[in-house]
Recover the amino acids of this structure.
């Protein structure tokens, strides 16, 4: 008899769907089927079962090849690296649980590390904008139950967050939104037509890099002030019309993504988007929310926030926490050659950082903790494979609206395999021993 | 466990009516005991000895506190203290890191703290932060005053169902008490609206704030919970709101506390300073502390905490979403809002209580008037609604103002518009100076009783938890005001549950903090079980199974207080 585990949390994107059902083999060891998940989530569950996944740590040899080593050796290498380094970088954290993050931070505090997460190349500019002007927001259920105006700006959930529209925004029938999609008007702003813009009642094909102008134009139009004939490639009539759509709703939401955070103007785009939201609260009820990518990048910011007061780019090297994006952020540190060891966990800078940064990582003492083989694990001196969080162990994660959901263990990890948290605990213990603090 | 004897201190313990007698306090196995055999002796000669203090209302853990931390990097400037032995690094002023929260309360002699507003959907977050707050025992109040289940049950006058739902929610969120914030008004805020008066209807739900308040008082007493219904009323912060507050307080009339914990009140009105304003606009803003305190003085079934304004730059945060929107429109500082499906909302806005602004000065006066006009210190507690009226780390300064008329006069003189402050309040004519016994009532015995925790906390009677604070302060000597503030800023010794935490001003341990929650047993209630199931299927965005807080990673050391509410 197969058995089905219900209410499983998908450890893929910031949508953090928690209604996944996983069918297991008789012995409970093999995942046979995954239900309710999107294609990417489905793939993640099945991929965890791949026969060729790494099961023991691997150390880079002088000739560039890798040799299997024991976890004990891996712990020793990692601990020694931390203790010897003057200013190690601890990067990643977005695809692991809050408990692992917490242990990692303690190591960082003891060793004077810089702790940074993937926001540094993703929603970091959003966090800077929030520090400038705040953020009126809400949980995703508020949108499901109340929202009649949905705006997706610079993001394409149809591909990046596939169940976002059906679970939370355009389609669901909620308490005050019994008619589902029919009760809502959808606006999409994107320089390219996408599968998301195909859903829109109002599509704005903004000129590349001109989001800031268009956001400010909407603010102007809200109050009926003068606009030039065209702003950011959009005729003024369409802007006035869009402003009227926004104002006339009962409850609206702006979701925004990398199309505005990582293009020209960066945090200034988000400043403008947040101020547009704030202005809209003079007429209606409006919220705004970043479409966070990795399933627990939000959690990394939260844990750093309550432990040190800053959500990313936290420099602990002086014995107290400092934060200065552009100075204490990973790529800036790497490019300036300011860090002398690199610890990567639960992310893949080898694939996502500029090549100049990747080359620096490859030259330094370095450890990559990741269940997969990735471009990062192939340049780091040590690769430590671990269990999949959310599949082979549980632990807390934060959804894009900051709602905490405890992920669920579905199957055992391969025999003898450590979790992120266990590995970090052992490294922490060893660091304390070396430093004579145990 | 080791034994300790704190010898020859001046002991202030309202639980035993000890008013500064020189006495010894003996500790064994985590408890206060009559005597010990081979103790480690702590010489407290010439010092003040009290039980560990209790915080009844502070925003120290959870989503809105962390929004504050994350969106205010400026709050960390010049505050950081590096890692030391037995001591993680700590920073932040009005929204300290969790580690600082634990250490800072301990330094003040506080050993138990209640987080004042837990959005149920975010209970895990609150618990994770409390887990990372060392030393102090903590509990958290889930918010109920705008919860859809509660609104619907109360609309239909289904007391048993609302009680069963409350018991369920306390269990799944590991919560401690029934918190109510701007009843009905926060739900209205879902549509950008508000309920300013107790008779304003809540949009769609067809109920009024007064029905919510009364219903929750009844549910609280039906369950016999350790604490009472704990309310932040409607119309907070506005000129002329004292009438709304009186309307709110009157709703306690005719209700009697029913519980086995020794609690006597049925309503705790929090940060009442923010609710005691006269005038019609900011220009004619004035104190109405007296009518409020007169009412409270006469009604024994009400307790209050003050919410003293400390005249600092701080961070306001509350589940009163519409209020924070109102505030950002007033001061034009950055605004965060966080509405929570089916349950509540929150807003966060920085605020500067400047001694140069007369309204801030009057607010300062209102807080002190409430405490100084209060006839029963067992029913009026020191808080700053941290961090709303100021950070809790200012308690020593508040104690100074309460104990010294001279200190108050100095502050009044320092106000830019001191004549306006004096004219719009009666603070300048009050010469009462509180004594240490009264301070101990307001910070120890009183809050412990109000929380239903007097058997454990707030006193030095044999059998109580050995939470003991020793201050380097000789009450027999004359003191300059500043010396009072300094002495209460840092305990010389602190014990938590019999474990030495601070010895000679140095941290020696992080103790073994506990998380308090209330486990109320009620009759089986299939109706509520069905309603919960339905709401999760239709309206929540998490499943019912993924709602309950379970596991040591959230609560490593739980302490359940059991209540039998089966009828
Ligand atoms: Zn409060």
């Amino acid at each position: 008899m197969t058995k089905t585990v219900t209410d499983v949390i998908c450890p893929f994107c910031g949508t953090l769907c928690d209604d996944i059902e996983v069918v297991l083999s008789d012995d409970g060891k093999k995942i046979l089927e995954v239900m309710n998940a999107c294609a990417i989530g489905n793939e993640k569950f099945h991929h965890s079962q791949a026969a060729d996944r790494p099961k023991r740590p691997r150390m880079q040899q002088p000739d560039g090849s890798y040799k299997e080593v024991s976890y004990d050796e891996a712990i020793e290498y990692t601990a020694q690296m931390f203790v010897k380094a003057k200013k190690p970088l601890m990067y990643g954290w977005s695809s692991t649980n809050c408990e692992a993050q917490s242990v990692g931070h303690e190591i960082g505090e003891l060793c004077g590390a810089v702790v940074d997460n993937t926001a540094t190349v993703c929603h970091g500019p959003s966090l800077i904008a929030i520090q400038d002007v705040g953020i009126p927001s809400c949980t995703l259920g508020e949108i499901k139950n109340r929202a009649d105006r949905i705006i997706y700006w610079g993001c394409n959930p149809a591909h990046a967050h596939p169940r976002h529209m059906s679970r939370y925004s355009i389609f669901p029938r909620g308490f005050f939104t019994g008619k589902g999609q029919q009760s809502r008007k959808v606006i999409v702003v994107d320089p390219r037509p996408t599968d998301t813009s195909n859903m829109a009642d109002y599509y704005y094909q903004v000129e590349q890099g001109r989001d800031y102008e268009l956001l400010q134009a909407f603010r102007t139009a809200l109050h009926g002030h003068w606009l030039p004939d065209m702003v950011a490639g959009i005729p003024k009539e369409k802007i006035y019309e869009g402003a009227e759509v926004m104002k006339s709703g009962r409850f609206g939401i702006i979701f925004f993504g990398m199309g505005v955070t990582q293009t020209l103007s960066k945090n200034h785009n988000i400043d403008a988007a947040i101020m547009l939201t704030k202005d809209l609260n003079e007429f209606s009820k409006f919220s705004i929310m970043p479409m966070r990518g990795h399933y627990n990048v939000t959690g990394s910011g939260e844990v750093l926030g309550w432990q040190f007061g800053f959500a990313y780019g936290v420099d602990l090297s002086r014995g107290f926490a400092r934060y200065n994006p552009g100075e204490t952020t990973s790529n800036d540190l790497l490019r300036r050659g300011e860090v002398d060891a690199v610890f990567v966990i639960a992310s893949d800078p080898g694939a996502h950082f500029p090549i100049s940064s990747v080359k620096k990582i490859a030259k330094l003492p370095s450890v990559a903790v990741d269940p997969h083989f990735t471009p990062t694990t192939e340049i780091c001196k040590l690769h430590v494979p671990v269990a999949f969080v959310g599949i082979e162990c549980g632990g807390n994660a934060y959804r894009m609206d900051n709602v905490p959901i405890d992920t669920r263990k579905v199957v055992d990890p391969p025999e003898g395999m450590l979790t992120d948290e266990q590995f970090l605990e052992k490294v922490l213990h060893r660091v304390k021993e070396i430093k004579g603090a145990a | 466990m080791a034994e300790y004897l704190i010898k020859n201190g001046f002991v202030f313990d309202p639980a035993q009516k000890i008013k500064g007698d020189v006495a010894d306090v003996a500790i064994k196995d985590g408890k206060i005991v009559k005597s010990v055999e081979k103790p480690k002796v702590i010489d407290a000669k010439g010092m003040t000895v009290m039980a560990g203090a209790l915080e009844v209302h502070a925003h120290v853990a959870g989503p809105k506190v962390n929004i504050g931390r994350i969106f205010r990097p400026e709050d960390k400037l010049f505050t950081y203290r590096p890692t030391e032995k037995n001591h993680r690094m700590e920073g932040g002023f009005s929204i300290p890191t969790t580690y600082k929260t634990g250490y800072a309360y301990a330094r003040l002699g506080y050993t138990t703290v209640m987080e004042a507003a837990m959005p149920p959907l975010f209970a895990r977050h609150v618990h994770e932060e409390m887990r990372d707050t060392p030393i102090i025992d903590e509990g958290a109040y889930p918010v109920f005053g705008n919860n859809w289940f509660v609104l619907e049950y109360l609309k239909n006058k289904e007391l048993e169902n609302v009680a069963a739902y409350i018991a369920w929610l306390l269990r799944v969120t590991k919560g401690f008490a029934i918190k109510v914030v701007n009843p009905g008004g926060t739900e209205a805020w879902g549509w950008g609206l508000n309920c300013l008066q107790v008779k304003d209807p809540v949009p769609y739900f067809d109920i009024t704030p007064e029905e919510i308040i009364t219903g929750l008082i009844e549910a609280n007493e039906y369950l016999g919970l350790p604490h009472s219904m704990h309310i932040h009323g409607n119309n907070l912060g506005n000129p002329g709101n004292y009438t709304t507050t009186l309307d709110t307080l009157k709703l306690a009339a005719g209700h009697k506390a029913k519980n086995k914990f020794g609690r006597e009140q049925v309503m705790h009105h929090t940060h009442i300073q923010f609710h005691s304003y006269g005038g019609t606009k900011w220009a004619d803003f004035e104190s109405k502390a007296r009518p409020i305190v007169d009412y409270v003085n006469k009604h024994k079934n009400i307790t209050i905490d003050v919410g003293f304004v400390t005249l600092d730059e701080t961070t306001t945060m509350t589940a009163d979403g519409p209020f924070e929107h109102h505030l950002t429109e007033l001061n034009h500082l950055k605004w965060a809002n966080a509405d929570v499906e089916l349950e509540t909302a929150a807003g966060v806005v920085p605020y500067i209580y400047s001694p140069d602004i007369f309204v801030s000065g009057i607010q300062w006066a209102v807080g002190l008037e409430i405490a100084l006009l209060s006839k029963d210190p067992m029913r009026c507690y020191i808080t700053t609604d941290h961090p709303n009226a100021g950070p809790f780390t200012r308690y020593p300064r508040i104690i100074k103002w309460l104990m010294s008329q001279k200190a108050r006069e100095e502050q009044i003189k320092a106000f830019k518009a001191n004549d306006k402050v004096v004219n719009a309040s009666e603070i300048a004519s009050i010469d009462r100076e509180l004594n240490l016994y009264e301070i101990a009532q307001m910070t120890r015995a009183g809050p412990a009783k109000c929380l239903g925790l007097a058997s454990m906390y707030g006193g030095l009677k044999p059998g109580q938890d050995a939470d003991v604070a020793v201050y380097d302060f000789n009450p027999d000597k004359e003191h300059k005001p500043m010396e009072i503030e300094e002495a209460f800023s840092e305990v010389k010794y602190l014990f938590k549950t019999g474990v030495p935490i601070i010895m000679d001003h140095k941290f020696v341990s992080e103790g073994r903090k506990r998380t308090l929650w209330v486990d109320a047993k009620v009759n089986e209630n299939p109706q509520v079980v069905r309603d919960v199931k339905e709401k999760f299927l239709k309206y929540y965005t998490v499943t019912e199974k993924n709602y309950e807080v379970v596991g040591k990673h959230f609560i490593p050391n739980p302490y359940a207080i059991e209540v039998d509410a089966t009828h």
Q: What stands out?
A: Residues 58-121+295-435 of chain A form a domain with the Rossmann fold fold (CATH 3.40.50.740).
